[in-house]
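Help: read this over?
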Amino acid sequence: MSVKLHARLNGGKKSLAKEASGRKHAGCRNTGIHHVGLRATNPAASAEFYRDVLGMEIVGGSAPDHPLGATAFLSSRPDEESHEIALFANPVFAHIAFKVSSLAEFRSIHARFVEKNIPVKFVFNHRVSFAFYFDDPDGNTIEVYWPTGDLSCTQPYAEPLDLSQPDEALLEKTKEDRRLH
């Protein structure tokens, strides 16, 4: 890369960073990226790679005949995070996931999407979390989720989530699902 181009790119980054730091986004307090969903031609084989090379634990997955297709889920901290990498044979499920700190935050961010008419693709109860999915302007799928604290459910698991229900009803449904499974 030429020095001139590098300087121009760095100058652009500085001004963008300066501009972004000056803006406040009320109500958007995500805690950062907490997992990624990647495309894998063979999720089981890729999971073994992450296990054998990075020491991650395979904590879930599904066969090709599952509605989501072949998947594998891995975590380096299974007592804290249900998964940090999700591997999907079907590339449509690849995504980046942002975690929020409370159910109120989750609802607030979802309400902002509805208010701004941003299409939400899915709203799910994963038992380990409540989540909604959308595409960013470039077509990348993004997940926003709130962990329920129930790490007992092996992924993949997805039931529709009705956010018109009060918090108590949503949390009770998760407890009920836990008793049934």
The domain at 26-180 is CATH 3.10.180.10 (2,3-Dihydroxybiphenyl 1,2-Dioxygenase; domain 1).
